[in-house]
Amino acid sequence: MSRDEQKVVIRNAKAEDTVLNANDVEELQPQTISLMPEMPEKQLNDLSDADIASLLEFLSQQKSFPAQ
Q1: What is the DSSP letter of 31?
Q2: Which residues partner with 17 through β-bridges?
Q3: Domain ranges in the chain?
Q4: Beta bridge partners of 18
Q5: What is the CA radius of gyration of the chain?
């Protein structure tokens, strides 16, 4: 996420940041695989049918904003 002379901040898949002392870091390598699912439909794979139903119910109850 960021780095300077004193610290390196990394973020995991759960959006949790970890702050490391820059002197303790030997090497930084960017991720070659995205944390995002490859296909949008895979975003629901980890949800149960009940969770998906609850999500759809929640979304259907949201107020829509007029087009601008």
Answers
A1: -
A2: 11
A3: 2-25+35-60
A4: 10
A5: 19
